[in-house]
Amino acid sequence: MKFSMNRNQFSHQISNVQRVVSTKSTIPILTGIKLDLREEGLTVTGSNVDISVQTFIDQQDADNELQIESAGAIVLPARFFNEIIKKLPDSDFTLEVLDNRQAIISSGISEFKINGLDANNYPHLPEVDGSNQLQISSAILQQLVTETVFSASTQENRPILTGLHLKISADQLLAVATDSHRLAQRQVAVKNASQNDYDLVIPAKSLAELVRCFNDTDTELTIAISENQVLFKFAQTLFYSRLLEGNYPATDRLIPDHSTTQLTFDAKALLASVERASLLSHASRNNVVKMTIKAEPAQVTLYGNSPEIGTVEENVQTQAVTGEDLEISFNPDYLKDALRAFGETKIQMEFTSALHPFTLKPEPATEDFIQLITPVRTF
Questions:
Q1: Using an 8 Å Cβ cutoff, are 5 and 85 in contact?
Q2: What are phi and psi of 209, to 5 degrees?
Q3: Residues 104 and 140 both lie in one domain
Q4: 247 found inside a domain
Q5: Residue 343 has what DSSP assignment?
Q6: 161 and 242 in contact (C-beta within 8 Å)?
Q7: What is the first-listed, main subcellular location in coarse terms (predicted)?
Q8: How many domains, the chain?
Q9: Can you give the pTM of this predicted structure?
Q10: Which of 157, 119, 91 is nearest to 34 (CA)?
Q11: Full strand arrangement of the beta sheet holding 163-169
């Protein structure tokens, strides 16, 4: 096996693969990166069991400057290989694998020899049936994940809640994440080639890693689904993730169907106010911010308190206040995460009582995007 290639292009092309490879694994070969060279190009694969990523570097793409002398395959230690490539002196490099599975990497005045492993021992990628496919823009999927995935649980005591619940019906994709204290729900349109209904839960960590793979260019993304795996195909990359087993809890009943108090805010302005109020609440063990709402005259006030440090009080600018007076306490970090998901837009907050979850929706209110937060009992 022997080839030469532009060094910067190679580093760029394998970056998505490199990120998923773990430096520690119960399967030692998975700490390596697999290189499979054929006459049409180079296939690079990395995996950490939960996620597998494969990228194809096309010999026909002139930007790659890929010159192939002889085909072959090898698994090289990912961390050292990546660091070596980054620090080579010239703009291109040559990699040659000897019969003893030793790889020689040369560039300019520098030459490295590193020991590889037999590529035949590298685990095969999962088989995913390509007949059940959806299509979605990478930009839309990235937005959907960004707006929901932070609400997934990070606690492994309920594994199903560490994932993002996706329900596909006709041409609509509904995404829900909850850790039982807060919930984020987003619905977008997709091209459902099979018109089948799907119900799956993808680990939140997998989706967070997936959206990091997208560059600034919006591209069409194909999603193929099998019994315990999902495959995302885009550009020259295949991204596999396992699916979580179990039944996701019914979250529809958590969203209130009516409200007694409604507020309209500028999301960015409210975020700034909550950040200030939480400066002192973070110093307290409870980490709670209180909001008082008065309809006549319209006034919304945030209170933060730390017995050791002091207190903060801020009147928040609202664009509308309707309904009943209310006093409610909540975790400010949950509200900050929700507000960041809305970006620079108007939002509507709807309350039913001091002890019931409240919701945030874009203004004008729509069921396509809902954030829900459970209040904190302070008495």
A1: no
A2: -70, -40
A3: no
A4: no
A5: -
A6: no
A7: cytoplasm
A8: 3
A9: 0.90
A10: 119
A11: 198-203, 163-169, 172-178, 182-189, 369-373, 358-362, 346-351, 261-266, 320-323
* Residues 48 and 30: beta-carbon distance below 8 Å: yes
Going residue by residue through the chain, which has 379 residues, state the pLDDT in tens, using 9 for 90 and above.
Answer: 999 999 999 999 999 999 999 888 888 999 999 999 999 999 999 999 899 999 999 999 999 999 999 999 999 999 999 999 999 999 999 999 999 999 999 999 999 999 999 999 999 998 887 777 888 999 999 999 999 999 999 998 899 999 999 999 888 999 999 999 999 999 998 887 777 888 999 999 999 999 999 877 788 999 999 889 999 999 899 999 999 999 999 998 899 989 999 999 999 999 999 999 988 887 767 789 999 999 888 899 999 888 888 889 999 989 889 999 999 999 999 999 999 999 999 999 999 999 999 999 998 767 799 999 999 987 5
Q: Which domain holds residue 276?
A: 255-373
CA atoms within 13 A on the CB side of 98: 9
Sign of the torsion formed by the C-alpha atoms of 201, 202, 208 and 211: negative
Burial of 30 (0-12, 13-18, 19+ CB in 10 A): buried
Do 260 and 349 sit in the same domain of this protein? yes
Closest CA to 364 of 328, 327, 319: 319
